[in-house]
């Protein structure tokens, strides 16, 4: 039997409800599951699993090199700006200052539109186009809206972006330059979601909200494939991620499971302990994880410098809790001052101007080392999810403590 796989040929075969596993078709536009109103998750045919050499398109230096494990059916529908394959950077100066022996940062700030949202939106807008959507709408804390506006422009779809009025100007302005309609709302992303339901009551637009369509997750999952490939099919001991809606956390873990099922990981590779990092101002997952509330359905958050973490009621909370439990991970929350301190350290010691979300992740590593949850000799991977540039108006003048 010929098991060679055309690298770009998608092996997707179905979707399932994250709660009850009822199957859904991947060949039509989908939202949340009709059975449980929960996220839909994509499944691939991993029966004769391809090797990395068979499945990965080495000529493609974007996330689309993993096309066999992505849901797009026809190359012609791909909407790309060259997202993914971001560098893994060693942090030797900060490492030796605090005693870490193997400290690495994956710099997602180098993606098109300045954040890792590019991965999810490249994937989601490609599928929207493939399945015949004319226009898309999104409630956003900032970066997802910018990315959606860019990919819709590139794919020839209309874009409506609903974001909090207090979002830094650079996010709104960039959306205008991509030709998007922008609506400003008083409140946080959950208030924007309510406005989206109003604006799209007739359902003409495809709702690209986090985990309300199945494909942003698939784009974010490519971070997991890249981390493994870039480390020679090994994985770090601990991975720290700034969790808002949680697609990255859930997606990276999904990639690890898929690679494990396909036999891609080096023998005896343990999966990393996954750490979700939140802002003290908005830490629903932290409060649920540590038992301060049963769940975040009624959680109220406050704005934070880390816009991407201002997600008070994440739909994916149960899936995030699964990842934390299965990986023996934990949750950390970081103050606003802490994020500024982390931005200063990464800037001054390593030449990285990171988003406050990325700075929070670094501060969480420091905190977990000081409490002994992390050992100094473990291989630590920090995810910096965005560039600091769009946050400039909120952090200007704070480079000195
Ligand atoms: C959106 C965002 C996050 C949170 O991502 P989720 O997938 O919602 O968990 C973190 N950092 C930045 C910079 C973001 O834009
Ligand atoms: Zn269900």
TrEMBL record:
<feature type="domain" description="Tryptophan synthase beta chain-like PALP">
    <location>
        <begin position="79"/>
        <end position="386"/>
    </location>
</feature>
<dbReference type="GO" id="GO:0004794">
    <property type="term" value="F:threonine deaminase activity"/>
</dbReference>
<protein>
    <submittedName>
        <fullName>Threonine synthase</fullName>
        <ecNumber>4.2.3.1</ecNumber>
    </submittedName>
</protein>
<dbReference type="InterPro" id="IPR050147">
    <property type="entry name" value="Ser/Thr_Dehydratase"/>
</dbReference>
<dbReference type="GO" id="GO:0004795">
    <property type="term" value="F:threonine synthase activity"/>
</dbReference>
<dbReference type="InterPro" id="IPR001926">
    <property type="entry name" value="TrpB-like_PALP"/>
</dbReference>
<dbReference type="GO" id="GO:0006565">
    <property type="term" value="P:L-serine catabolic process"/>
</dbReference>
<dbReference type="InterPro" id="IPR000634">
    <property type="entry name" value="Ser/Thr_deHydtase_PyrdxlP-BS"/>
</dbReference>
<dbReference type="InterPro" id="IPR036052">
    <property type="entry name" value="TrpB-like_PALP_sf"/>
</dbReference>
<dbReference type="GO" id="GO:0006567">
    <property type="term" value="P:L-threonine catabolic process"/>
</dbReference>
<dbReference type="GO" id="GO:0009097">
    <property type="term" value="P:isoleucine biosynthetic process"/>
</dbReference>
<dbReference type="GO" id="GO:0003941">
    <property type="term" value="F:L-serine ammonia-lyase activity"/>
</dbReference>
<keyword id="KW-0663">Pyridoxal phosphate</keyword>
<dbReference type="Pfam" id="PF00291">
    <property type="entry name" value="PALP"/>
</dbReference>
<dbReference type="GO" id="GO:0030170">
    <property type="term" value="F:pyridoxal phosphate binding"/>
</dbReference>
<keyword id="KW-0456">Lyase</keyword>
């Amino acid at each position: 039997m010929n098991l060679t796989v055309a690298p770009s040929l998608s092996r997707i075969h179905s979707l399932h409800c994250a709660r009850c596993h009822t199957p859904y078709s991947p060949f039509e536009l989908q939202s949340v599951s009709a059975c449980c109103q929960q996220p839909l998750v994509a499944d691939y045919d991993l029966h004769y699993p391809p090797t990395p050499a068979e499945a990965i398109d080495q000529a493609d230096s974007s996330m689309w090199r993993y096309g066999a494990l992505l849901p797009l059916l026809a190359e012609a529908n791909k909407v790309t700006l060259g997202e993914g394959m971001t560098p893994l950077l060693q942090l030797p100066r900060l490492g030796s200052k605090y005693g870490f022996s193997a400290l690495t940062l994956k710099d997602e700030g180098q993606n098109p539109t300045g954040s890792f949202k590019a991965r999810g939106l490249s994937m989601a807008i490609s599928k929207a186009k493939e399945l015949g959507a004319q226009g898309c709408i999104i409630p956003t804390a900032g970066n997802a809206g910018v990315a959606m506006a860019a990919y819709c422009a590139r794919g020839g779809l209309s874009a409506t972006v609903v974001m909090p009025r207090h979002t830094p100007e650079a996010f709104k302005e960039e959306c205008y330059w991509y030709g998007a309609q922008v609506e400003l709302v008083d409140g946080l992303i959950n208030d924007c979601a309510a406005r989206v339901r109003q604006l799209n009551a007739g359902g003409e637009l495809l709702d690209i909200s986090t985990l309300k369509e199945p494909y942003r997750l698939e784009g974010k999952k490519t971070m997991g494939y890249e981390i493994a490939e870039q480390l020679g099919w090994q994985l770090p001991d601990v991975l720290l991620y700034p969790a808002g809606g949680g697609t990255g956390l859930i997606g990276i873990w999904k990639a690890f499971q898929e690679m494990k099922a396909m036999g891609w990981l080096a023998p005896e590779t343990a999966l990393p302990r996954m750490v979700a990092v939140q802002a003290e101002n908005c830490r629903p997952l932290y409060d649920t994880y540590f038992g301060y509330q049963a769940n975040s359905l009624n959680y109220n958050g406050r704005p934070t410098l880390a816009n991407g973490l201002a997600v008070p009621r994440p739909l994916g909370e149960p899936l995030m809790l699964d990842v934390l439990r299965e990986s023996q991970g934990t949750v950390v929350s970081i103050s606003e001052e802490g994020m500024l301190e982390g931005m200063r350290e990464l800037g001054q010691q390593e030449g990285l101007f990171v988003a406050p979300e990325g700075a929070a992740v670094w501060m969480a590593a420091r905190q977990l080392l000081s409490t002994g949850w992390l050992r100094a000799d473990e291989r630590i991977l920090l995810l910096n999810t965005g560039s600091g540039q769009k946050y400039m108006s909120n952090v200007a003048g704070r480079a000195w403590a």
